[in-house]
Amino acid sequence: MIQDLTHKKIVIGDNVSWVVNDNNIVIVCKKTKEQFIINYPEAAIWDLISRHSDLTMIIKKMRIITHKTGIKKVDKLTKKTIQFWQVKKLIKAI
Amino acid sequence: MKNKNKVVEAGKKASQIFILPINKNWLIYAPLINVTAFVNNEAVSTIKDFILNGKKSKITDNSLSQLIQQLKETNKIIPGKIKGQLSPEIPCNIFSQEFKKSRQFCNFNIVTKSKKQMNYEALADAIDWYACNIKSLKKDALNVHFYANNLISFPEIFEVALHRIKYMASIENLRTNFEISIGSQIEEKWLDFIGDYFKKVFLSIDIKDLNQIISSDKSLTKTLESAKALANSNAQLFLKIRNTEANEMKQIASWMCENINPDAICFEYNTQHSVSKNSKLSKSDEFSKNFLESRKIIESYGIKTLYSEDIKEYPVLTCCPDGQDTLIVYPYGCFYGYHLISKSGIKKASNLNIGQTKKINKNEIINLGKEAIINFRCETCFCRWSCAGGCYVEDEHPVFSNNYNNHCIQTRIISACSLLTNLELGSEIDMLMAYEHSLNALKMQHSDLLENFETR
Predict the structure, then answer these.
(1) Which residues in B lie closer than 8 A to residue A39 (C-beta atoms)?
(2) Is-contact B409 B443, C-beta < 8 A?
(3) Confidence of residue B275 (pLDDT cuts 50, 70, 90)
(4) How far is Cα B145 from Cα B376, in angstroms, rounded to an integer?
(5) How far is C-alpha B139 from the geometric centre of its chain's CA atoms?
(6) Nearest-CA distance from B260 to chain A in Å?
(7) C-alpha–C-alpha distance, residues B380 and B398, integer Å
């Protein structure tokens, strides 16, 4: 079940570790041994989450990071990415 | 403008072989062909005869003969003025906010009325312009230096800017290099961010904090805790020690190496720094002496010591980013050439503001490169291709005075000692620093050029 994250702080899930590379972030779920390579702009979302941002703030910042991409498109990308990570238990709400 | 051209031509005509009195001998230094040698009085006269007076007889001393051959090398590396399109080799600088304090970083001196965070739109525009410019010049990396006077007040601007740059780099297939200058303590969550994304961190530490710790054995201040954490991160940590009392430098150096273990330590020369009350030494002698002794201590820990005006591997036209391919992006999104806002009046900011990011004046950008000035007074100084006049804004340009200023003197001493260190002549340094007349001969020599050498 996917939690509504609108007014909550999002944090990195338990048993999840990641490495920041020059062009991407590699996330590893220690429990499932699954590995995810996250490129930009999604890599920026991961970094913002790692410092406990809430969804509203993440969306606000992603609009600047992806400047001129179009607000609707960016918001959709951000929400979809977060949802996917939530399903994969890479992140959680607190 | 006429003066500048004159200086360039004169520079080309001069031999660019410098000769420095070191105790009873001489240090020959030709930076444009990368030759340094330690010779006696007789050898200097022979060198002068052969190089400048065209003498051609045979020299029996093989090593001297080889040295003369090396000094005759005509293939000199003369760093030239920047021409054509702006092509940033050194970082584009982004300031998160205006500064109230002067000399916070890199002797920067801006007086502002209010703190103001950079506007996100202006920031994104500036980054886009920089990325497109780099791409059109077929360069492969975006090099950005962030100035964060206070990372606690405005941290978000950095994460947004950094990710915007990384996003643009991914679109344009460019690499990224980030550096950051910080002047305060850093919250824990930002320490990880800095460690993960920044290659170099320049952390300024006010020495007054450190004195308390050394003398009272109290726990680390927040800034020093940050320094310790950064030293253990992936980023390289460069500590910039401010407001140093010269006579405390060695103690500070040892303490920093033992307790923080950074990658490098830089003692910032502060024109206001005081000399210990009982010292008979001048300000610049005291700074140099203690800097050199501190350098020994620091290097014994395998840590680098930095002095921006020190001898460099390659000759440079200026060690000040002013006049080089560096841009600063101000909080309002204005681009300026480095150091071009100054109350000292050396530069007139009015014609050097190259525009708001949305309407950049390309001609002004091209003109920026032409601003590198060859310092007229430095022409006969052996530091002219390394210090090259120092900071254009803060240091009193020697063109305004007939004598070496404090900054010149300490740079001459430190640079000469660096050359001697490279030649493994540590004993000469000890002697030089111990005898006042030897030191005076070095620091006050009016012209270091070989053509002005007179047998003593």
Answers:
(1) 170
(2) yes
(3) very low
(4) 30
(5) 24
(6) 25
(7) 12
Is-contact B250 B229, C-beta < 8 A?
no
Helix, strand and coil content of chain A, in percent to the nearest 5, comes to: 40, 25, 35
CA separation, residue A89 to residues A2, A3, A34 (Å)? 10, 11, 11
Confidence band for B2, pLDDT divided at 50, 70 and 90: very low
Query: What is the rounded CA–CA span in Å between residue B47 and residue B68?
Result: 6
Contact B129/A at CB under 8 A: no
- The Cα B124–Cα B165 span in angstroms is 9
Q: Which of B121, B125, B159 sits opposite A47 (nearest CB)?
A: B159
Helix axis angle, B156-172 to B120-136, nearest 10°:
30
Q: How far apart are the first and last CA of chain A?
A: 15
pTM of the model: 0.81
Chain-centre distance for alpha carbon B147: 16
Q: Closest-CA residue in chain B for A52? A: B189
Q: What is the pLDDT of residues B118-128, one digit of tens each?
A: 677 777 877 88
Sorted by where each begins, the domain ranges of chain B are: 2-78+375-452
Whether B163 and A22 lie within 8 Å, measured CB to CB = no
Nearest residue of chain A to residue B128 (CA atoms)? A67
Element (H or E) spanning B264, and its range? strand B264-267
CA quadruple A79, A82, A87, A92: dihedral positive or negative? Answer: negative
B164 touches chain A (CB under 8 A): yes
CB contact under 8 A, B160 and A61: yes
Q: What is the ipTM of this complex?
A: 0.94
Q: What part of A 23-82 touches B (C-beta under 8 Å)?
A: 23, 39-41, 43-44, 47-48, 50-52, 61, 64-68
